[in-house]
Amino acid sequence: MNKEIKDVCFRNAKKSKDKINQMQTDLEETERNITRLSEQKRTLTIENKELQQKLDEITEEINEGSGEFSGIKKEIASLQEKENKLKGERLDADNNVSKMEKSVEDAASKIPLWEKEV
Fold first, then answer.
1. CA of 43: how far to CAs of 48, 49, 55, 88, in Å?
2. Rounded distance, CA 18 to CA 21, Å?
3. How far apart are CA 111 and CA 96, in angstroms?
4. Maximum Cα–Cα distance for the chain, whole Å?
5. Number of domains in the chain
6. Quick one: DSSP state of residue 118?
7. Coil, strand or helix: which one is 98?
8. Euclidean distance between CA atoms 44 and 52, whole angstroms
9. Dihedral sign for Cα atoms in the order 98, 103, 106, 109
10. What is the pLDDT of residues 14-29, one digit of tens each?
11. Residue 7 lies in a domain
12. Using CA of residue 81, residue 85, residue 86, residue 88, what is the dihedral sign?
């Protein structure tokens, strides 16, 4: 019986030693993973800062471009307004020319009658 107890104790000690070794291996692997993940986190943090900076720069460029676009849009509206005014003036001038031409034609058609009267 003493031998059996000794064997059981020996087996239990071996199992405990194997578990300790396995836990030590798991601990080392976990430490490596933590180190790897910490490095990955640091890299991602740096990339995130760079991307945020680029995003800020692009946002600023967009805002500047929007301001320029707004100015150009106002210029276009002003030019269109001037164009419409000039088109209206041209239409008035064309109408006046047409009236004058009609008056000249009327007068020209009446010239023979006036000549007979004179």
1. 9, 10, 18, 66
2. 5
3. 22
4. 165
5. 1
6. -
7. helix
8. 12
9. negative
10. 999 999 999 999 999 9
11. yes
12. positive
- Residue 6 domain-assigned (yes or no): yes
**Within a domain: residue 66?**
yes
- Per-residue pLDDT tens over the stretch 28-79: 999 999 999 999 999 999 999 999 999 999 998 888 877 788 888 889 999 9
SS3 state at 8: helix
Burial grade of 4 (CB within 10 A; 0-12, 13-18, 19 or more): exposed
- Catalogue the E-assigned strands of 42-99: none
Name the band, by pLDDT with cuts 50, 70 and 90, for residue 2.
confident
- Burial of 72-101, coded b for 16+ CB within 10 Å and e otherwise, reads eeeeeeeeeeeeeeeeeeeeeeeeeeeeee
Q: Is residue 63 situated within a structural domain? A: yes
Query: What domain range is 38 assigned to?
Result: 1-93
